[in-house]
Amino acid sequence: MKVALIGLGSVGRGVAGMIAKKDLGITITGIADSRSGLIDGGGVDIPALLARKKEGGFCGDQTISSADIVKKADYDALIEVTPTDALSGEPATGYIRSAISRKKHVVTSNKGPISLFLNELRMAARKNGVALRYEATVAGAIPIMHTLEDGLAGNEILALYGVLNGTCNFILTRMAAEGLTYEQALMEAREMGYAEADPTYDVQGIDAAIKLVILANTIWGNGVKLDGVDRTGIDLLTADALRLAEDEGCTIRLIAEAIPRKKILRVSPRIIGKNHPLVVDGTLNALTLETDMAREITLIGRGAGSVETASAIIGDLLYIRDRYVQRA
Amino acid sequence: MKVALIGLGSVGRGVAGMIAKKDLGITITGIADSRSGLIDGGGVDIPALLARKKEGGFCGDQTISSADIVKKADYDALIEVTPTDALSGEPATGYIRSAISRKKHVVTSNKGPISLFLNELRMAARKNGVALRYEATVAGAIPIMHTLEDGLAGNEILALYGVLNGTCNFILTRMAAEGLTYEQALMEAREMGYAEADPTYDVQGIDAAIKLVILANTIWGNGVKLDGVDRTGIDLLTADALRLAEDEGCTIRLIAEAIPRKKILRVSPRIIGKNHPLVVDGTLNALTLETDMAREITLIGRGAGSVETASAIIGDLLYIRDRYVQRA
To answer: Between B153, B301, B312, which is nearest A318 by CB?
Structure first.
């Protein structure tokens, strides 16, 4: 199977490295970072390219853009892992539309296009007979989309509850464990590299809400949007609130919930029993699916990281390889 | 897709009920309990049959046996859910061999044949171009086999750790929570219907070890057997031991572990941090997979129950329907 890889940040480098390392029957025939691109029908030399990137060099030719690769390279599946723009979804959405219109499969980790345009992109993919896979958009290495699709096939999903933002979970874990204030815990998260200089996107629950939108639309196809999520962040939580919860054998976590029967679509800090499966520590992510047959199934794993996210992308690529490309 | 269902205990009735209730494109053309059988190429009337069974009546004709159904009925997939005989694997193994030799797919919840003869049955299935699925043999509703196969595709599984016996987990949870002795907690488990009159199979770790054998052979194909599992039960655990663990912020769980790089294949009570994802309460099951890319992924869910186990079986049936029968 031939793939084109657009985006060479942490996730893109992780994916490229794993494709080079593992014998998956996958060849990268086109690759681009934000400044340059490279097309090689015989297969890009990944180790050499990663070494070049590490030294601050260009990925390829500055006259070849990401859009050129998407439009012109010979590949079966596009791997789109450029940075997320949650408002416009660009330039990722353009790349994805363009690949689908060329009847190429698409695998993306990009929350922008999927949270904004899932229904449109899904329909276009179906019309063109190709797969659109986005396991990596939600909860990093946790194979939530595969579980919804295959593992729990035949089940009706009645509700979902998730800890979908590692930054918030780290801050809350530290506040509870050490009695820190929100500001102290945020400072620590920044020092550890878990929080951005501007943490708004994480601590106000926007990131978790975007993931909730993706999950809800995937499961129920109900066309919900970010502004339909009832959202409260963790930035106003006091150390006292956490202490009171702990006194009762509980703790506080930022929980994303979708419960269609109650018309609930919400991200908010919730008091939750310490033994509840969703109470995970540090930057872990967790998801509970409430179903009609399997009842509650909880999945826990790493929500971020280069190789962890590569795991989700490679799972999607193998799905396409085994169900589409090998049969063609 | 046409299926034959052998076994009408709690699991069999759960499966039949769900096939009748849900629109899955599955028709039961043959069905048998331990005393009688029924063949109906047009589709067995499931609600009528379940009502008959509820009143203590026969499933069908006493002159038609399970073996007759397996050998003569017209079906695409056999659903084998008779009681487990962990020593001989019979009569289930005979039914499964017979169905595979007729080029029929097989779905089973039976730990006997799968823990004893997985490699042989797998090879026979491959030779005959049919699927052998057994999601329900380990951890009830948790889609562990699907996760290994699809969700974590491309990952190398380095080790696994599991809480695979709900009876033991219930007893340990109650000992820790209420300071009960093993005998008191066992009594409570019996009253709740979670423990058999003779609890040996559960409390001495045999059931967990059998599941560990199934998982290890599935993942690494290394032909391990039950007598290769280093096994210690929970029946000699004292309330003091649990109290000491709790004093250190830990607890004790019966953990099944397979770590090939250390040559460990073991079921034993382990001291484990209370915040560890594997520490689940009551009769829940939990499994952690250690992988090279996704790192640790934990799955938590119900390890038993009629409808919960039906979820696993129906997941397997839909796998076969979508990948084999619909394409044929």
So the answer is: B153
| Catalytic annotation, pick one of A104, A211, A263, A274 | A211
Q: What ipTM was assigned to the predicted interfaces of this complex? A: 0.95
- Consecutive sets of 10 residues in chain A, 328 residues long: mean pLDDT of each? 97 97 96 95 95 87 96 98 95 98 98 97 98 98 97 97 98 95 96 92 97 98 95 95 94 98 98 93 97 98 96 98 82
CA A99 centroid distance within chain = 20
Closest by alpha carbon to A146, among A135, A137, A159? A135
Q: What's residue A54's pLDDT?
A: 87
What is the C-alpha to C-alpha distance for residues A7 and B126, in angstroms, rounded to an integer?
A: 40
Name, in order, each residue with C-beta under 8 angstroms of A125's C-beta and a sequence gap of 6 or more.
Answer: A100, A106, A131, A132
Residue A48 identity (one-letter amino acid): A
pLDDT of residue B275: 86
Query: How big is the CA angle at B123 (ends B117 and B127), to the nearest 5 degrees?
Result: 145
* Position B203 pLDDT exceeds 70: yes
Q: Report d(CA B284, CA B139) in Å as an integer.
A: 9
Tell me the three-class secondary structure of B125-188, residue by residue.
Answer: HHHCCCCEECHHHCCCCCCHHHHHHHHCCCCCEEEEEEECCHHHHHHHHHHHHHCCCHHHHHHH
Using CA atoms, how far apart are residues B140 and B284, in angstroms rounded to an integer? 10
Q: Is B18 close to A299, i.e. CB distance below 8 A?
A: no
CB contact under 8 A, B277 and A277: yes
Contacts of A145 (CB under 8 A, 6+ apart): A133, A134, A135, A138, A218
Which pLDDT band holds residue B126 (cuts at 50, 70, 90)? very high
Read off the amino acid at residue A144. Answer: I
DSSP B84-128: P-TTT-TTHHHHHHHHHHTT-EEEE--HHHHHHHHHHHHHHHHHT
Q: Which residues of A touch B154 (CB under 8 A)?
A: 18, 22, 24, 311, 314-315, 317-318
Strands A105-108 and A264-273: unpaired
> For A153, which of B147, B293, B315 is closest by C-beta distance?
B315
* Band (B327; pLDDT cuts 50, 70, 90): low
- Residue A261 is given by DSSP the state G
Structure tokens at B229: 């599992």
User: What is the token pair recorded at B293?
Assistant: 């890319």
User: Which are the contacts of A186, defined by CB distance < 8 A and separation ≥ 6?
Assistant: A171, A195, A199, A203
Mean pLDDT of B94-119: 98
Indicate the pTM of the whole model: 0.96
Q: Is the dihedral of CA B71, B74, B75, B81 positive or negative?
A: negative
Is residue A211 annotated as part of the catalytic site, yes or no?
yes
When pLDDT is cut at 50, 70 and 90, the band that residue B197 belongs to is confident
On whether the CB atoms of residues A107 and A77 are closer than 8 A, the answer is yes
Angle between helix axes A111-127 and A206-220 (nearest 10 degrees) is 20
- Two tokens at B190? 């019996």
Query: B72, B127, B211, B274: which one is catalytic?
Result: B211
Label residue B118 by pLDDT band (50, 70, 90): very high
Nearest C-alpha neighbor of A31 from the set A90, A99, A80 = A80
